Amino acid sequence: MTDSAIKVAKPKEKPYKLADGQGLYLEVMPNGSKLWRLKYSYAGKEKRLAFGAYPTVPLQLARRRRDEARQQLAEGIDPGELKKADKQAQKVEALTFEALAREWHQYRTPRWAPSTAAKALAYLESDLLPALGKKPFESVTRPDLVALIRKIESRGAHNIAKKTRQWPNQIFRYGLARGVIEHNPATDLDVIAALPPPTKHHPHVTFAELPELLGKVETAKTHTLTRGAIQLLVLTAVRPGELRAAPWAEFDLDAATWTIPAARMKARRAHVVPLPLQALTILRQLHEITGKYPLVFAGRHDTSRPMSENTVNLALQAIGYKDRQTGHGFRHLLSTELNGRGYNRDWIERQLAHGDQDEIRDTYNHAVYLEQRREMMQAWADSIDALRAGGNVVSIKRKA
C-alpha cells in the first residue's frame, strides 16, 4: 500500500478494505473516512484493533503501531486489552477527588432529606474539597485524610470531623464500586478520632417551667405565625425544619393528622403526626392568615418561602430564654416527660420520628402506633393545659 493509493481511494456504498500486510488494513467508509485496523488472533479468538484515521495517522505511523502490537502478541500480551487498560489508567489519573466527590453527592442526594444533602455539600465545599479536591483520586492517601481530620478537630469542630471521617470512606467506596480505583484509604478513620467534649443537648426547660414560657410567648409582641410555630412545636414535638416548611396540603384537619412525606423527613420515611385538639385550634387560626398560600408559615416578605430557620429561637431569646430553650429542645422536653410518665418507648420514639438503634429491628418495625400516639399526645396537650390552670398532672400519667 502507498500514500498515493490511499489518497485516491474513493468511498463506495459499503465499507471496503485496502490491505497493507501482516494484518494491517485501511477500511474506507461510505462517508469517506479512512480508518486503520489491525486484524489479529489471541487465545484462539479473532480480534480487531483500531489505530486511528488517515491522514491524522499516516501510513508509516500505522505500520509502526502494527509492529508494536505484534511484538506485544509475541510476548503473550493482548494489545487490545492493553490499550483498554491504558485508557482506563489515563482516565483515573485525570479524575480528581472533587469530580468523584460531586458525582457521589449527586448519587446520594435523592436518598437524603434535602437538609442532609445541603449540609453534606456545605461540608464538602468548606473542608474536604479545598484540601483534597484538586488531587488525582488515586493519589489521596491516608496521611492526607488524617492531617485534614486533625486540622478540623483542632478548631473544635468535632461534628464536622466526624463527617470528614465518614464521607471520604463513602466516596472511596463509591469509586471502588464504579471500578475507577483499587483501594480505599479512608477505612477505619474512627480509630484515630480525638475524644470530643461531652455532648451538649438542645437546652430545654422542665415541664414545670413550661406554663411560664408559654405565658410569655402569648403576652410578648411576637408575630402570630411565630407564636403559633412555638405552640405547635410544644404540641407535636416535630423538628423545627419540618414545621416551618410544612405546606397546608400535608394537613387533614378533619382527620386530625399531619402527614409529612419521606422527602421532607430526616430518616427518609413518611411520618404521620396525630394532632391534638389544641393543635387543631391553632392551625385553624393560622389558616385564616396563610390559608391562601401554599405554606403554613409563609415568609412575611416572600410567601413562596418559609419563615427563617432562626425565627423561633430568636423569639425565645427575646422573651428571656437564651441558652435555656430552643425550638428543637421541645422534643427533648417531651421525651423526658413522657418517658417519665411510663409511656411505651416505641410510641415516644415513633412520635419523634426516630429510627430504632437496632437497625434490623428498625427495618422490620413498620408500626406507626397512630392511635396509641393520638391518645398519648392528647394527654400531653391536656396535661399542659391542666398545669397552666394550676391543676394536678399526676392523674394524667399512665403506664403503657
Walk me through the structure:
With 400 residues, the protein is an alpha+beta fold. It folds into 3 domains: 3-92, Double Stranded RNA Binding Domain (2-Layer Sandwich), CATH 3.30.160; 97-192, Tyrosine recombinase, N-terminal domain (DNA polymerase, domain 1); 207-396, Intergrase catalytic core (hpI Integrase, Chain A, Orthogonal Bundle). It contains 16 helices and 7 strands. The protein has helices at 3-8, 59-74, 79-94, 97-108, 114-132, 142-154, 158-178, 210-219, 224-236, 240-244, 277-290, 311-318, 329-340, 345-351, 359-364, 370-388; strands spanning 16-21, 24-28, 34-42, 45-54, 251-252, 257-260, 271-274. A 4-stranded antiparallel sheet has the order 1-2-3-4, with helices on one face. It is elongated and about 105 Å long.
What is the secondary structure topology, with strand pairs?
Elements: H1 3-8, E1 16-21, E2 24-28, E3 34-42, E4 45-54, H2 59-74, H3 79-94, H4 97-108, H5 114-132, H6 142-154, H7 158-178, H8 210-219, H9 224-236, H10 240-244, E5 251-252, E6 257-260, E7 271-274, H11 277-290, H12 311-318, H13 329-340, H14 345-351, H15 359-364, H16 370-388
Antiparallel strand pairs: 1-2, 2-3, 3-4, 5-6, 6-7
Summarize the structure.
The chain has helices at 3-8, 59-74, 79-94, 97-108, 114-132, 142-154, 158-178, 210-219, 224-236, 240-244, 277-290, 311-318, 329-340, 345-351, 359-364, 370-388; strands spanning 16-21, 24-28, 34-42, 45-54, 251-252, 257-260, 271-274. With 400 residues, it is of the alpha+beta class.
